[in-house]
Design a protein that fits this description.
The protein is mainly α and about 450 residues long. Helix content is about 60%, strand content about 0%.
């Protein structure tokens, strides 16, 4: 009997035919091929497989350990489509698991995307800033901020002047006189002599001569409402630029704007006299022993110091206004852009005022309120443009989360399992009547 006769007879009796390795042998349906005894050849497309129904996988041979196939992926690999359970969705071969991305470990950061070149994307950055500013309604935000600034300025100035009356001793005995002379000089260029002599000069002398508690209280109460509304417009425009306008509660955002305004007033009272006095007066109040070094520092560092101070205040506003703030250094660019925009707008505003002043005395008298409204409008416009610039930079070159956000996420990840178990507990545990265990009764002598 030949081997072919044995194979055919076994097939008639229902036995599973063995693989002969020849191309003409067709295995029965459902039959699995055993592992080939020889080493796999990747060039021929032969990949060793193991029977799925075997409980124990045979030990690999020395040939397989020495020359494994680099393109081979075992059936037990989770990424292999045939290893999935029946009925489960087949994972995509190009996707990566959470463990590979580092999501299961908060200390492992996901792989970073390649950085875009800065110089090549500057036109895209400018265009995206312009489009996003227009879509977010930059003109409306700037107009609202200008209105509230104009409304809050008179009571704010009265309150600040009343506060300077108490702090005049800190900056020398002539501080009040210098500030009063500068205010009156500005008023003479703006208003008529009758208005200055009858209204402005007595008010300034009365407020600066001694601190007036009544002026401070009334002025601050009026300025709190209007000034905090202006700051609220700035905060709302900044969070809108970064698409975080739905994160913070609206009521808390209004209270937050009021707190920011109070902080601004606290910083402005001691710093505004230094800015208003100028470098000439600062050189006069410096002691003679400090003259060579401090005088040169004032001459060369006064205006850079004022510019850096304004940039710091604006960067702080950009940082504090966001519910999910960006790192401080990523917001300096928007502050610089805002300063440049405001400087350019102020330059053209001076040209405009010089042109309309030559039109006649009547229209020239109206130039002051028009100039002030345009001044506040361009100030709000510059602040909103800086916020939109920071948002455009963040969209093109995303920054890593701040340290506080990383710590918060790590703590949340560590406590997620515990809080998840607590959430699964019912709000109120059901209790029933207390059942007592029946103890066996002890027989006494009376029962006998």
């Amino acid at each position: 009997m030949t081997p072919d006769d044995v194979t055919s007879s076994g097939a008639r009796r229902g036995a599973v035919p063995e693989a002969t390795g020849r191309s003409g042998a067709d295995p029965a349906p459902g039959a699995l091929l055993p592992r080939p005894p020889r080493a796999p050849h990747p060039d021929r497309g032969e990949i060793p497989t193991a029977p799925l129904h075997s409980a124990r996988r045979p030990a690999p041979s020395s040939v397989e350990l020495d020359a494994p196939d680099p393109n081979h992926r075992a059936l037990a690999d989770p990424g292999h489509p045939e290893s999935a359970h029946p009925g489960s969705p087949t994972p995509d071969a190009g996707t990566r698991t959470d463990k590979e991305l580092g999501r299961d470990d908060p200390t492992v950061e996901p792989p970073e995307t390649p950085r875009r070149p800065v110089v090549r994307h500057i036109p895209i950055l400018i265009w995206r800033t312009i489009v996003k500013s227009w879509d977010d309604g930059i003109v409306g935000w700037a107009a609202q901020a200008a209105f509230w600034q104009a409304l809050s300025l008179p009571p704010l100035l009265l309150g600040l002047l009343g506060s300077v009356g108490y702090l005049s001793g800190w900056f020398g005995p002539d501080t009040v006189d210098v500030i009063s002379d500068r205010i009156l000089a500005f008023a003479n260029r703006t208003f008529s002599p009758n208005v200055v002599n009858d209204l402005i000069k007595p008010t300034v002398d009365n407020v600066l001569g001694r601190g007036r508690v009544g002026v401070i209280s009334v002025g601050f109460i009026l300025s709190l409402w209007a000034g905090s509304s202006a700051v609220s417009c700035f905060v709302a425009s900044i969070v809108r630029a970064h698409d975080q306008h739905e994160v913070r509660n609206p009521v808390w955002q209004r209270i937050f704007a009021l707190l920011l305004y109070l902080g601004f007033l606290t910083v402005a009272v001691p710093l505004l006299p230094l800015v208003a006095l100028g470098p000439n007066y600062l050189r006069e109040i410096v002691p003679e022993s400090w003259d060579p070094i401090v005088t040169n520092a004032i001459d060369f560092g006064y205006f850079p110091f004022v510019a850096l101070l304004l940039m710091l205040v604006l960067t702080t506003l950009y940082h504090l206004a966001l519910p999910n703030p960006l790192p401080w250094h990523r917001l300096v660019g928007g502050a610089i852009v805002a300063g440049i925009v405001f400087w350019v707008a102020s330059y053209f505003l001076r040209l405009y005022l010089a042109a309309i002043t030559r039109a006649g005395y009547t229209y020239g008298a109206l130039a002051t309120p028009i100039a002030f409204l345009l001044f506040t409008f361009f100030l709000g416009f510059a602040i909103v443009v800086g916020a939109e610039f920071n948002a455009a930079v963040q969209s093109l070159w995303p920054a890593r989360p701040a340290v506080t956000a990383q710590v918060r996420d790590w703590v949340h990840h560590q406590t997620a399992e515990v809080t998840g178990q607590l959430k699964t507990l019912p709000e109120r545990l059901s209790t029933g009547p207390i059942s007592r265990r029946n103890r066996p009764r002890e027989h006494s002598a009376d029962d006998l």
